[in-house]
Write a structure and sequence with these properties.
The protein has 506 residues and is an alpha/beta fold. It is elongated and about 95 Å long. The strands form 3 sheets. An 8-stranded mixed β-sheet has the order 8-12-11-13-14-10-15-16, with helices on both faces. The protein has a 6-stranded antiparallel β-barrel with strand order 1-2-5-4-3-6. Strands 7-9 form a two-stranded antiparallel sheet. Helices cover 37% and strands 17% of the residues. The protein starts with 9 loop residues before the first helix and ends with a helix. Helix 6 crosses helix 7 and helix 11 crosses helix 13. The chain folds into 3 domains: 62 residues, Elongation Factor Tu (Ef-tu), domain 3; 276 residues, Rossmann fold, CATH 3.40.50; 123 residues, ATP synthase alpha/beta chain, C-terminal domain (Lysin, Up-down Bundle).
Length: 506
């Protein structure tokens, strides 16, 4: 007996609209819904005072009826102080305000690579907004102690002095500090350019800088082919103070997403001295009690909670790293000022750029005697570390002995030989901008210098010799695993070519 299939009408499968409505009404119970509606009392200088929002909490987003957005920053008995993140021309006293129930978020993910955005993720490069992006809370918490591990892998900046004598490890917080126009941003840019092809993703945060500097940085990274692995977060000088306050935290959240997924990241904060000034401005406008140098009492906590999010995660938590290079400007070489001392105590070391060295033409103008890396040496390649130990001692002795030459005193032959050796070393440490060197190059010239193979080489010959060392390393003849004898042969061949070239020139 054959069974007959009777088709069921499609309309019979779906419930009728009346049935669905009846089901909803059957489970509906009338309740009182309370909704807070505040009112703007005063607005000015990027700050709004709002009343009648008793449920407001710090870092909540307030939606204003004119389309503006504000962030709760201060809670008083009667009024809530908020910093504006977006302001329209129609914002005045009397404008209604509602709690949005959200905290500030920023889009994250690979879609932001190569993009220029503001601290809220809105594009500034003329392209469409990144699509299908996850959003991450800007004010995230730092990883717990159990989620962290030791810094044990090097991050190469491409700068000879840094990679040899002030090494940086992945997950380290290394402060770049110096006077105005001493090359702080250039040093950070070279570090980002050197990450090309290494798998390290970069975030560059510009806080309160001029638009011309932002454009220059974007063009520099694009010309060097480094924009593809970099996200640039910009809060220009004319922006609202609230956006400049959010900028470093937004950039940190973007890098943090990659770190949580097990990737290596590098973030540059340019610069935190302007961020501290913005925070002081906002705090004074909101009538917070001032402390030392008129900064609020929680300025240390502000930067500590930002930089503590940079770390090396344990393998059980993804194994990613976030290396931070905060930049800060000091006035007249005053390291004992409030903000510099705070950041020096928070970070794992500092790279000090000296105004006098810069004026003398020694670039990068890094003062070795005032620079230190507290944990980077543990991540440094052992071969490089051994060679650097011998070289650094020679350089420090040269700096001490060079003082005597200024008085025209007669020197012993051994002292004069050390000074000549030190002058050659100083030329080896000079480096032009946008010309990063790989770690193999560092091992090559260190081997040549420590082995005494540069005896008799004049300081003016060093630039040409540096090019020959770099060219020899690019050939791939020696690797980091090669023994010392192989490196000596490579250096000897480069010196022979140098001598033959000079002979032909003569």
């Amino acid at each position: 007996m054959e069974s007959e299939i009777v088709p069921i009408p499609f309309a019979a499968v779906l419930p009728s609209p009346l049935t669905a409505l009846e089901a909803r009404l059957a489970g509906y119970f009338p309740t009182t819904r309370v909704m807070e509606r505040g009112c703007v009392v005063a607005v000015g200088d990027g700050v709004a005072w709002i009343r009648c929002l008793p449920s407001a909490a710090l870092d909540d987003i307030i939606a204003l009826e004119d389309g503006s957005r504000a962030l709760v920053f201060h809670l008083g008995k009667e009024l809530a102080g908020a910093i504006l993140l977006r302001q329209t021309d129609r914002l005045t006293a009397g404008t209604g305000a509602l709690l949005s129930g959200t905290r500030p978020l920023v889009p994250v993910g690979d879609a932001l690579l190569g993009r220029v955005v503001d601290p809220l993720g809105h594009p500034l490069d003329g392209f469409e907004s990144p699509r299908n992006c996850m959003r991450r809370e800007i004010f995230g918490s730092s990883p717990s102690i159990l989620a962290r591990t030791f810094v044990n892998a090097p991050l190469y900046s491409g700068t000879t002095i840094v990679d040899t004598m002030i090494p940086i490890g992945k997950g380290q917080r290394q402060l770049i500090i110096g006077g105005s126009s001493t090359g702080k941003s250039s040093l950070a840019l070279d570090a980002i350019i050197n990450q090309k092809g290494s798998g390290v993703l970069c975030v560059y945060v510009l806080i309160g800088q001029k638009r011309s500097k932002a454009v220059t940085i974007v063009e520099t990274l694009r010309d060097a082919g480094a924009l593809a692995h970099t996200t640039i977060v910009v809060a220009e000088a004319f922006e609202l103070p609230g956006l400049k306050y959010l900028a470093p935290f937004a950039g940190c959240a973007i890098a943090e997403e990659w770190m949580r997924k097990g990737r290596d990241t590098l973030i540059v904060y340019d610069d935190l001295s302007l961020h501290a000034q913005t925070y002081r401005e906002i705090s004074l406008l909101l009538r917070r009690p001032p402390g030392r140098e008129a900064y609020p009492g929680d300025i240390f906590y502000l930067h500590a909670r930002l930089l503590e999010r940079s770390t090396a995660l344990a393998a059980s938590h993804g194994g990613g790293t976030m290396t931070a290079l905060p930049i800060i400007e000091i006035q007249q070489g005053e390291l004992a000022a409030y903000i510099p001392t705070n950041l020096i105590s928070i970070t794992d070391g500092q790279i000090y750029l000296d105004q006098e060295l810069f004026a003398a033409g020694f670039l990068p103008a890094i003062d070795i005697t005032r620079s230190v890396s507290r944990i980077g040496g543990k991540a440094q390649l052992q071969r490089v570390k051994e060679e650097v130990g011998r070289m650094k001692l020679d350089y420090l002795q040269f700096l001490e002995l060079e003082v005597f030459t200024r008085f025209g005193a007669r020197l012993e032959a051994s002292v004069e030989a050390r000074i000549k050796r030190g002058k050659v070393l100083r030329e080896l440490l000079r480096q032009e901008r946008r010309a990063p060197h790989p770690v193999e190059y560092q091992l090559a010239w260190l081997t040549a210098f420590n082995s005494g193979m540069l005896e008799g080489v004049l300081p003016e010959e060093i630039p040409e010799l540096v090019n020959r060392f770099a060219a020899a390393v690019e050939g791939g003849r020696c690797t980091l695993e090669s023994n010392q004898e192989a490196w000596r042969e490579l250096v000897a061949d480069a010196l022979t070519e140098h001598g033959e070239a000079n002979g032909r020139a003569a």
